[in-house]
Amino acid sequence: MAVGLVFGPERSFAKKHPAKMPVTLLDLYRQSDAIFEARYARTEEGEVIRQDADYKVLKTKKHFDIYSTVKGSSSKFFELAEEEYRYSRPQSGSYLLASAVDSDVENTYGLRSGDTVLLFVKYGEDGKTLELTDDEEGLKKISSDDIAVYQKRIAELASLLSSDKVSTEAIVVWLIRCAEEPATRWEGTFELVKGFERLEYQEKQRRAAAEKPEETRGMIVTDEVDALDSSAFARVLTLDQKTTLANVLLDRKPVPAGDGARTLVRGDRELIDLVKHWGDPRLAGFLLEELKTRDLTDYRRSETMRLIAEILRDQKIVGLASEYSNAYRDEAIAAELFKDQDVNGTTGLSTDRTAKTDYKEIRAAIVARFIKRASSVVVAQLGTEN
User: Fold this and answer.
1) Model pTM?
2) What phi-psi label fits residue 267: left (phi over 0), alpha (psi between -120 and 50 degrees) or beta?
3) Is residue 136 located within the same domain as residue 150?
4) Number of domains forming the structure of the chain
């Protein structure tokens, strides 16, 4: 018998919970009572429940037709009840900046009829009603090409978790397999980054306990790590596996600027963080090449400069990265930077240009100085290593 799955209000782009740890495919599978492949059908708009000068909140129901059950009991359709925010005026610069930061993250907004999705659901407190396993990641919009990749990874994970004793090493191999595919890169790299961060925290905790035993008495420090504790993944990752992960990122050929290709897929930023944890002499050069050849947004360019500065640890480079960040985030700061420059100085700008042109040229001048300095430092560091 067909069952309609209905659950309460959940996501809104304006009301996310940034402190909440994202949930990857590994935990989604473990926590879900059912997983469905479905197609988005339509959205029904209901009553407006709140409204002010900036936005209104209305009830909506999104309808999905389920065509395959990956895990759990089957169903025919799915109904998602939400409270959706609709803005009535253009958003401020700070809002647009936040939107740019999250631009790589898939969400349910912008769904079109026929779009393929994966639904991860679990039983609610009543033990009968199904709800999303996770508000943010429980509904994944996936292309028709990528759905096959998810099918493979889920089938592999089901086999791994069916064993009486789950192998940490086998899970790590599976996470690397996720990272190798653009479709599931984030599922693998985020889990591994989380593991390294947790491992670092445990080491800091251990050092604090050793240095100040009286102050840290009662803190639990243990070497026993559960197979699915993410820090265990960081502990067992081998040198060959680290090289494999680094090669996923660093062996790619830069794509010429203006070709319309995305600079990064979701998970690449976490992959960069991973490589930074153990270091790779190619990373700074790779990011510098991205900066030179890609048509990046201001935000992405600023983040790339920041990462290069963190890797190279050169004070002039750190200062230039900070200068660029200030210049693009705040036009007032950019104007002050412009005033401080000598006409015959490093920017080569004249004071009779329009403000709009000045801001653009200031940023370009900072990037040029950054690339020049970073290139010389990268060459020097590689020469030292050789």
Assistant:
1) 0.76
2) left
3) no
4) 3
